Every structure is written in structure tokens, then in C-alpha cells.
## 1
Amino acid sequence: MVAAAPRDQPLPVLLTCKYLLSLVLGLGLLLTLAQSEFELQACLGALRIYSLVVVVLQVALQLVAPEASALHPGGGGGEGHIAAGFGKGKARNRAGKLVDFILVVILSIFSVCLTHIVTVLYGAYLIENIEETFTFSILVASLAFVRPLVALGPGALGLIIERANFEEEPVLQSLTAVVGAWFGALPIPLDWDTPWQVWPLTCCIGAVIGEVGASAYLLSKIYKAVDSRKKNKST
Amino acid sequence: MASSDWDVLVLHYLGLDHIGHVEGPMGTHIGPKLLEMDKVVKDIHTALEEKGDRYLITICGDHGMSDAGGHGGSSHSEVTTSAVLLSNTFGKFSPGKIRQVKQVDLAPTLALLTGVSIPVGNIGRPLTEVLSHMGLERRMLLHRRAAKQLLAIARGSGLFSGNDNAELIFEEATRLHKQVLQSDALEAERVCRFYQECQEMVSDALASKLQSYDLTAIFASAVAVIVTFAVCLWRLLTYPPDVREVAWANVCWCAGGTFLAWLLCCATIPGSCVCHLLQPTAWLLGLTFVYVLVMVGQAFLTGSSRRKQRMSAIKPLHQFLLLGTGFHTLSLLGTSLVEEEHQTVYFLLSSLHVGFIISLIIQIKRKVLVGRHDTDAGRHKVDDDLEDEDVTELPTRISGRGSEGVTWMQTLRRTPVKLLLLSVLSLSLSRLMRSWNSTGDKWKHLEDLGDGIRAAGGYVLMVVVLAGLVAALFMFSQNCLPLVLVGCTCIFGRHFPLSSSGGVLEAQFAHFVIFILFVYGLLKAKLIDFKTPNSKTKSNLDVFEPEEEKMTVLLRYSVTALSLLCLLLQRADNIGLLALVMLQNYIMSSVLCKLMGTGLISSGAAALAVNWLAFAHFFYQGNSNSLATVDISAGFVGVTSYRPFVHGALIATQTFGGTFLTYLSYLMQIISRDAQKERWQYPLFVWWTVRLATVSLYLVNVTFQRHHLFILTVFTPKLLYEGAHLLVLCVLTLFMWSVEKICTVLEVSYRFE
């Protein structure tokens, strides 16, 4: 814990920025959707842009500060695994990184397709509305699957399952996005005939709300950690 | 407006209703729309004034508006609207306070004003202010006419058998009327008032009778269902039950108590149908209350010491199943979710499949990771097919570990990938089946797969029917293949007949074959005892419990016979669907049983999952919660003359056969693995508890909403269906009980030989 403290110093600032940015982005998206009065094409465009921005943000953070995107304080073992995962020794570093990069890209595309298939299996139309279903799968995949892949590398699934700690960043964000999308499906069969009940808007909004909630929770956690550390320092 | 070739003009303006639905009563467009309406009325009024004839403008709404802008409920603002009558015959009539009248009062008013006779059966009374411009004699005559008609309706509906105040008033008014006509007294107003009083009494009595419910019977039934549910829940929580003999003295005490309560109820609230002993209501309620009292007595005697620890470690899957069932039950409180109940069920079922898949993936990965920690912690492979070889390599690596790990590993290593694939297959089947028949209300009109197949007709239909029958043949191939083959051929012949009877002969032959199959199953179950040395292939056949084998055999043949019967009764394109349903039954039953074996889900949770599956299969066939989707043609398959009971039984089999088969296949799977009575009775208890919970909540809701607009179109048909599902469970329970009794009796007779 003491050894980890100096390393944590730049992290809270970066992480705070990251969570704040994702919070702002999520709220911004919701506002945009509401402003456009839920007109379908505009909303689909906004959702795609949001997914892209989210992934770009994660990639940028990964490039700028690789250890910042590692699992949160208490993830010492995880970093060891990642270091090992990125190839043994410095000699293989570049080749290993290239292989990992390609793997991450392939797995991201695979996760988008998987989400699309799962959505169709849940009841989305196979042929009609394929654009809407695909936009929804891009959104959920980028929020829930691509970000952990970028952060943790190709072994993300194994790491998450092994750790299975719901307080940590990648797990929490994936979980809330997926659970939010699941709850977003509940208003679909109601007969209110409102403009936002069109597929896929309710599920997308649910996923974004889940993401915003996760960011807010993580921000509050950092605030508490910083607060307690300040108290520790003062005493 | 200007032309004079019309007498009545009816204008229906939809704008205000539409704006209300979209924006609500406080929307921005409401004001301008109302002004527009004002202008319209003004234009009409001006035009009619210019014309110079006598006119009457009636402005009214057909319903009100709730705060959200919709209507259909029974709130005050939704069922109240306003009516304005403008005429140049009303004289100097300054509008005083607004009077509350019934909507049915408009009809006699307009009828009397225009000279048309009052509609037959109308229970309203004319508005007195509107008739005030007419002469006294005419007014008395019109009021008399209206009162006479209302009294005739009241007499016809048997309303005034004991209470004929209205008749006395009418006679008094008639007497005065004659006096006024003869002697021209100034009592005309009094005559009119008498007539109006008579009208008011009769009209109110008729209106209240229209929406009267037998509240005593409803209340007693709701209480009976709720306490039965409580008893069922108690028995479920203290499972397995302590088998105590029920003393006949206790039953007599309970029966006596119920009888006294019934007497008390009928003394205080007469006129309810509970009090008529010729109707089954009283007997059914009496039986229920006696049973409940006996059970309560037993509960007190056995005490609460048998409360088992079931809440120890509830896994997420269990929580999801419980919460999902609770959500499904609660969703029936809203009309749109009652109409679209199939969406709820499909959604929950898909989520359950995904939950299984995720749990299995986690289990597979966890075992791999546990094994990998000793060895190279380098490359992590994510693809599932690459994991296969890792999983099979596990036992050699961890054979040095504790012994309990090995057995768990060995049971899991053979099955998890297979279970994963089966779950994925079942999910795909669900997706295919849900698009076969679209049901419900909102999206019912969209074309579905069944529509497409029927529209294509010809070869496509034949291929679908053939495929379904061949699949069924493979699934039932081990139950007397020749008979099943003949049955399937007859079913095919029903839709593509070779004989000249148009498929009726084939259908009748199929009925016969199914009956023979069932009898054969009975014989086969019985004959097992008599051929002990070389009969069965099971090596662990214990001679002291042969009924295990017998029950399985009997159930297998019953499932086969019932499946063939259901296949026979379906529409042509639904044969393919039913084959898929049976396939999914088989897959899900074995998946659930294996998952129970590995401890991933408990038997209660598996029973809840089967409940969802049964409901999904109910909806896949195209049934819904409205009576319009019941397939009447199924009642006439192979029946050439009118036999109502036969038709009813066949229609019931076709509608609920899928559900029944789902329950029965699951019980068959459980019994074939372990025929202990407790193992297969537990799911029955779970299903009864869930059904009773749903019915009690729904009954209470319907009782509170009995004045809702959709009470007869949505709520009551659903109540009928819930009752029918309870009956299905009754039939299932009785069937299992009789099967068990047959096998036990046979075993006893074997021992005595």
C-alpha cells in the first residue's frame, strides 16, 4: 500500500479527467437526443459519433498513460499479468505489441458482431431495421467490450472473469452499460406511442444512462479515496 | 350549410382528441384548437340564424381526457365531458348552474325533440329544460311517453318485483294528467314533475343494475384464492412435507365451521349467487375453505420447526428467476402489458438463456484459469473452441489436488461445452419460433413466418409439414416406431389427403392410432414385471423399486401420444412449429437437469425456468390473451357430427397442449433420472404457487378495476385464461397422481404374487 502510494499520485487526476469527460459526453449525448426530439436519423448519427468518441478517448488514455488504464488501486497482480501479456522481455516488445493490437482490433469487430447477433436473438428483426440494430450493437460493444479490450489487452475476458470485482473500472462500466441496455428494453411493448419508444432509442438511452451512472460512481469513489488520503496525511 | 336539402348534420371533429393524446390537456396546441372550434360553432350558428328555421345545435364530447392526455380509464376527468345545446326555440333561458346528466339522456331528448321514437332499450330520461319551450299539454304527453317506456323496460328486466314506488307515482301522475286535461287545472307542472320523478327512479335503477357485480361472490372468491396461495406457499417452504394423517374429526370441524360462516354470510348479504346451493360457486368455495382450514390446522400441529434453510446462498441466476417471475406477475397490472404478455415472456426467456450461456462460459473459464495458474501464465486464449482442449487436459494437471475437486471437474468437463452449445441452439430455436406466429395486439398485423408459409402454399407447406413430422418421428422413435410412423402418416394425410373424404378419414384413423399407442404404453408399463430376466437394459434395476421404470415408460408413451394428438390438431404450418417446440422441450429439460446435477441452479429455480418455457410455448403457437386467437377448427378434426364435449376437449388440447407437454416432458426427464416422489413433486408445488400468486394478484386487480373501460375486452379474457392455466395444472397434477398410483398398485400386486 505504501509502495503503491507514490505511483498513484498522477492517477487520480487523470482518472478524474477521464470519468468527468465520459460523464459530460454521456449527458451531452442525452441532451442532443432530447433536443432533436428523437428524430431517428439524427439520433442514430449522434449515437455513432458518441461510440467513436468513447473508443477514441479510451485509446488516447491508453497511449498517454498505460498504467492509468490498468485496474484500479488494488490491481497490482493485474498489472503483472498485463506486463507478461505484452510479451516477454523488451526484445519482443514491438512485435508483441503489434500482434496484440491486431488481436484487439479483431476482437473488437468480433464483439460488435456478437452483440448484433445477440440482439437479433433477443427479438430484433433480422432484415428490417438492420441499420438501427447495428448502431445499437456498435454503441453497446464500444461501451462494454471495446474499452476493456483496449485497456487490458486481448486477455481482457479472462482477466475480468478471474477478478470479477464489480467495483473496478472496466467491469463496472461494462456491466452498467449492458444492464442499462437490458432495462431499456422494458418500455418497448407499452402502447404510449411516444417518439422515443422507437427501436433502438430506449435501449441506447438505457446503456448511456448506465455508463453515466458508472462514471459518477467511480468519480465519487476517487473523491472518497483522495479525501481519505488527505485525512491520513493530515493526521 | 346554405342548402336546404338536409334535416340533420353530424360533424365529427378529431383534432382535439388527437392533440390531447399527443400533448396532453395543457399542450400548446389545445388553445388554438379550441378557438378554432369556437369559430366553427359561431359560423354554424350564424348560418342557421340567417336561414330562419327552427334549429338545435348540440355540441358534446364522446369522452373526457386524463391528465396525461389519454382516456379509457375510469377517472372522473376521463368519463366526464360536457354537452351544450343551442336553439332558437329555447327562449330567454339564461344558463344557470351546470347540471350533471348521463350520456344516455341525450338520446331520448333528441328523440322527443325531433319526433322520432325513443330507441328501444334506452335507459336515459329526457332533459327537462330542453323541453321547456313546448306547450304544457305536449310536455306532459312527452314526459308520459318517456316514463311509460322506461317502466316497460324495468318490468321486462324484472327490476321492480318488490319495489314499485315508481309504478305508484306513474299511476298518480296519470290520474292527475287526466284531471288536468279535463278540467284545465293549473297542476300541469306537478304532473310533469311526477313523471320526471318516476323517470329518475327507473333510470337510475336501470343504470346501476347495468354495472352491478355480485361483490359477495367476488370477494369470497378472491379471499379463497389468496388463502389457497398462502397455504401453497407454506407447503412449498416446508418441503418435503411431513406426512401426517388427517384426522376425519378435524375435517368435520372445519366443514362445520365453513357451513356456519356460509350461513352467516347469506343471512347478512342476501341475493348473492353464493347463497344459491344449486350453483357450483358455493360448493367450490366451501371445498376451498375446508381445505384451507384443514391445512392451517396441520400447520399449527406440526409447528414451524421444519423451516428449511433455503435462503443460504442465492446465486444471481436464482435471483434473476425469482425477480423475473415477480416482474412477470406484476406486469399483469397494466392493460398494455397484458395484451403484450408474450413480449415479457420472450424477453425473460432470452435473458435466461443468455444468463445460462454467461454462467457456463464463466465456469469454463474459471476452471481453465485455476488450472493455468501453476503453469505458464502467459498467453490467455479467449476463443471458446480453443478452450476445449484445455478443458479436457485438466484432470491430469490437477490430479494432485484435493479429491473433491476431481469429481467436480470430471462432472463438469464433459458437459459444459455441450450445455453451452445446447443453450445457444435453444436460444436460436426461440428466435425462430417467435417469428413464426405474431400475436398480441400491437404488432399482430405484421406478416410472420406462418403467414409466409401459408401464402406460399403448395410445396413449401408440404415440405414444412413433412419436416415437422419427420422430426417428431425421430424424437419418438424409441416408443413403438411402427405406431408412431402410422400416426405421422395419418397426420400428413389429413392435410394432403389421398382419400376422397378430404382428410377426415385420415384424421379419424390418426385418433384411433393415438389411442392404441396410449393403451400400448399402459400395457408395456404393466408388462415389465412379468418379463424381469430379459426386459430392461438398465443394469441397476432394483427389483424393489420397479415403478421407477414403469413410471418412465408410461410417461414416455403418454408424451408421445399427446404430442401426436397435438400435431394432429394443429394447422398445417404450425406442425413445423410444434416439432420445434418439442425439440426445445427436450433440449431445455436435459440442459436444466444437467445444470441441476452440477449445482448451478436449484430444483426450484429450474421449475421456474420451465414455467417460463411453458408460457413461451403457449404464445409461440399464436395464442394470446384474447379469445379471438382460440382455434375453433381444431375441435372438428376427424369429428363429423356435432358433439360439444368432444369439440371442447379437442379445442382445449390444441390451445393448452403445448404448455402441458412442456410440463410433462420436464417431469419425465426428472423421473427418468431419479424417481423419488419428492424430486418430481417439488416442481409441481412451485408451479402451483406461481400460478396461484398470479391469479390472486390479478383477481384483486380486476376487482379494483371493475369499472375500467377495458374490463370486458382485456381484463376478463385474461382472467379466463388464468383460470384455464390453473385447470391445466389441475389436470397435470391429477394425471401424475394417477400414474403414480397405477405404478404403486402394480408394484404391490407384484409383491403379492
## 2
Amino acid sequence: MAAVATCGGDAGSAGSAVATGSKSNVTSFQRRGPRASGTNDSGPRLVSITGTRPSVRNGQLLVSTGLPALDQLLGGGLAVGTVLLIEEDKYNIYSSLLFKYFLAEGIVNGHTLLVASANEDPANILQELPAPLLDDNCKKEFDEDVYNHKTPESNIKMKIAWRYQLLPKMEIGPVSSSRFGHYYDASKRIPQELIEASKWHGFFLPEKISSTLKVEPCSLTHGYIKLLQFIQNIIYEEGFDGSNPQKKQKNILRIGIQNLGSPLWGDDICCTENGDSSHSLTKFLYVLRGLLRTSLSVCIITMPTHLIQNKAVIAHITNLSDIVVGLESFIGSERETNPLYKDYHGLIHIRQIPRLNNLVCDESDVKDLGFKLKRKLFTIERLHLPPDLSDTVSRSSKQDLAESAKRLGPGCGMMAGGKKHLDF
Amino acid sequence: MLDSLLALGGLVLLRDSVEWEGRSLLKALVKKSALCGEQVHILGCEVSEEEFREGFDSDINNRLVYHDFFRDPLNWSKTGEALPGGPLGALRAMCNRTDLGPVTIALDSLSWLLLHLPCTTLCQTLHTVSHQDSCPPGDGSPVGKVHVLGLLHEELHGPGPMGALSSLAQTEVTLGGIMGQASARILCRRPRQRPTDQTQWFSILPDFSLDLQEGPSIESQPHSDPHIPPVDPTAHLTFNLHLSKKEREARDNLTLPFQFSSEKQEALLRPRPSQATSHIFYEPDAYDDLDQEDPDDDLDI
């Protein structure tokens, strides 16, 4: 990563390094003076690309994932040049929603999109993106929505803590389009003119390869090779890696790959434990990350990891991606009827956060997160588990607490079995 | 619900096991589609054509287009009757069909295909076949729905191929039952909607028509545990957690120790233009001692 100087390197010099490729990028101290490239008003010379902002911690250029709640958990946003891997939930409902939020954010910010899928035509995916909540009419509806959920006691004027009446309420709401993250209405479709005004490239696997083609066996599955070549072409032709000096405004390429690793991509990683193409997916991720690091692009990948048979491969995939978020929905599982989880639709597990130019990563201290899809919003909240009052209370993690709360006091006999640690 | 299985289109998996066989249900669904006037193609790999056609009356038999891969799957006899490419070739040929009416393709069985073909190729072909109606042809004419019914013996396969096929299928019917009464658990995955899960009791009549039934009688079901009512933690306490109406009124009328008069409160709440000096508003309290003497004076320090 240190050798690749263009993106994610020195603080804020990502875009400028691309623009002035001949200058050495050893130091980030730059003389203040009249510069050819468009400069911002203050501080380091950041090329201002719409929809991006520098991280407050290490100056990385960040883009929004489309969900401000998720941005906060990831330390402000998704760093340009990284891969966000979403482990799909069992029926692929919420992961496809996150995928669409990411793409819709790209359209609203004017980024270029690259959508790759093996089961759905990218044009159809773009038609189903959620509509952004941009103007004040929506803000009124949003406030009304929040108001309906408030408890009646909060309407009473505060008698003891009356000084807090003046404080602004800590509620999140829709913001104007110049801000970093946007809110989307999952029940409405994005207006057609926004899609037409945006620039996008689609990769639909059944169109790109013909099934009767006899391909010699190689280490990468044929579909993956095609996809990598496609991505490389787009990056090169449109100048995201600085090869063609861009005269117009710099832009970010948002790549979305749906259901990577499913059998429809020609990969048998979900079907067998030790197949022929067992290293195909890991090699693909490695090459993809190399492509992303040398260009102004971000990638989101949804992967059905619950179908992958070889658990070691999942560990490899986690290491090869930068940010890994796992979604677990309660549909069809016994947790759906569990009263502990009645307010939520599922759990979010942040499995990995990258350490980009840092020794430590931006881990939040909240590990139990649940999500719910309200009428218009996708919210992620901290899960509050009640104290465990049963006989099988142990000092292990909250996961065990939740499970033991379900079993109503079976007694000491249960300690021997299951996932309990030995308690002395 | 079972009779509207075919309304959705796409891939329908019939998962059966040794105790509850699914071929009769497959034949019942095939008969239903044939009676609706759809084109029916059968890929017969596991049982012979005579055995499959047995039980159907002649007009249904005339409507079925049977591709026989049981007698000579590898085309060793080279008579030229067998279709080129084996079952995969036949499936692919169905991908590029020219007639546009609704069609039902019954795979008997999908397990056989899974054991003889690589799983990824089979998944890709099934996906293309079952999604033909979503990709309209160039001339824009509406394409009829394609139903693919696959009979899958779930005991023959590991979790990998089963999971892969389940994620591909629009509807999954798992056969089971209690004491001679067959049931079908139908899991319907509509795209972008919550999957629905229903159980339907049924039986198949000798002429392969479907008879939907209510569940078995209640006494035969094992007793589930009586529902434990949630325990109210505020009951049976030694102290009182609830307030009666009179107590609530008395609490409201109590003056708080540091309560200002309402004018002072409003003055404080109004945002002040300058915050340079901070003011201390003091209103003497009822219990306050106004004696200016230092109360510590009588201490001998």
C-alpha cells in the first residue's frame, strides 16, 4: 500500500497526485500559491469531488455508503479505493437494499456507476433504486413520522429539567443535497430523469459470455476474468486512474457487484467444499483490490457467505476485503418471535474495519447492532439486551446472554452442553 | 396455496424424501398445467416413459412432450433419436424457444441432473430457462410464463448444492407429513419481499388430481407446552410502585425546592443577546436562612 502513491496515500493529496503525476509524492507539504488544478479555500490541496469529504481522523478521502447510520459506524464513510463486502442475509432482502442505497447515493452525487450482476439485468436494478429525500416537503413528512413514534409523556413540558427545552432535539433528518449522506425512501422509485442524467455501465454476465464457449481451465473463472477486464477498461478509458488526464471535473467510480460467488457466476464455491475453482474468488478479490487502489473508485460487493461450504474460504475473503459487514435477518429464524428482538428486523455485524495508513482502526465500541426498516428509513441502532435473570447466566459475551435468556432456567445441567465456557 | 403454485412462474423445487415421495405431486402439477392448456415438456431421466405416463388419460398424454433420457442417457445406441447434447442440450434448446405461450418444464428428476452435471452449469441453465419471461424478445411481444418444476431428492445431496438451488428457486415445496397424511411446506420467495411460509395438507387421488385437505384431527397432535404467561415483575413486591390518582395529584402540586417563578424561568429560557456577564438569579427559598452571619463563627478554629 505504501508503494501505491496515488490514492489513499498522503493526506488529501489523492486527487492532486493523479492530476500532477510527474511530481513526487514523498511529502504532503505543498507550497501555497497559485495552482493550476482547482483548489479549495483552506488547508491541504484537496481536489473537491462532489460527494466526498476527507476523514477527520487521517485525511482519507471518504464517500458515503448511502446510509448515514452505516457511515458513522465505519468511521465517517467508505474510503476511496476500498472494498465494502456485505455478507448477505438468507433471503437477500436487506443486502440488496444496502446495495441499492449505495448506487442511489452515487446517482445523487453524480458519480459514475458500474453495476455487475449475474442474475439481474443492471438496467432493471437501476430502475428499482430508492428515491432520495431531498426537499423540505419530505422533511415535514419525516417529522410527522418520527412524531408518531414518540411516547405521549414527552409532550408534557419538562418540569424539572426545564433548561433542556431549548436544546436542539437530537434527531436525524433528511438534509439537502449538498451534504455528505442522503436519506432515501425505500417505498418510492428514483425518478427516471435522475437515472438518465447519470452515467452508468452495466455488466450482465449471461450477455457477456456465451455458454457454449469452451474455455480452457485456468485459475480464474471465466466470468471473473471478463468482469475484471470490463472494470479495467472502464477505469482506463474514463481516466479514473489518471492515465488520461481529465480535463473535466474528477469523479469517483462506484462499482457494485451483486451476488458474487453464487453459482450463477460460474463459481462452485457455494456448491462444494473443495472444488476446482476454490481459489478463483480469492484471486478475483485480490486483483480487484489492486485495481481499486490505483484509481478513484469504491466497490461494494454482496456475497452469499451463508452458502459457502468451506469456512476457511470465508476467512480468506474477509482478509482480502477492507470492510466487511454481515447482515443477519430474523425472517424465518426462531429469533423472529423472540421478544428481545421484536423491534428489529435483523442484526448487523461489523466484522472488519480497515487500517488505512494507521496503526489502529476506527472501531466503535458498540458491538451489538440491530437494524430495522421503517416505512422510509433504514435505521441501525444499538441493541439493548435486558439483564439476564435466568439460572444459566455466565460471564461470556452478549451473544450467549441472548441465547440463555431464551432458555427459561433449565438449571445447572445445561452448563455442560452447548457453547458455554467453563465457569470457575 | 398448492393450486396457485404455478401462478408465480420461475423455478419450483419439489423436495421429497424416502418417506414422502414427490413424483405423484409432480405428475399432479403436470396434469394441472396440461389441463390449463399450457405446453408441457418433460425431461425424463429417472423413470421410464411408460412408468411416467401411466395414470394419465389419453388426452393429457397427447399434450405431453416427453424427452426420454432414461433409456439411453449417453446415446450409445446412436440411433439418432436422442437429442444432441443430452439433457443439458435439451434444456438449452428450451431457452431459445420461438413460440410464446406459457410453458411448463418438468424435470424428473433434478437430482439426476445434479449428479451428472456440474452444479454451476445446471444453475446457470436453470436460471436462463426460468427467467425467459423477464427478458422480452426483440419484437416486444409478450412472452408467456415459464414454470420449471424440479423434483429433488433432498437426501441425496449435501448442503452445498441444496443451498445453491434453494437460493435460485422462487418456490420451494418440502414434502412431509404425519401418520399417512401428506403435507407440503411451501416457501415462496418473491423478489424484494418477505418470503411466505405455509403448510398445506393434501392427498393425491388415483387419477393424479390434487385434493387439498385440512390438517389431521387435533387429538392426534402432540400436546404443546401450555403457554407460560409473562411474569409481571411489579406484582408481589414489598413496596408500592404504582401511584393512585390522588397520589399523582399530590405529587404534581408539590413545589420543587429550586423552582423559580415562571417569569424568571421564561427570562432564562429566552436566548440572551450577550453572554458576556453571567447573572445569578437568587430567589430566597422558604427554608433559607437570611442571617448574614457566618454560621461557622461559633466554631472554635
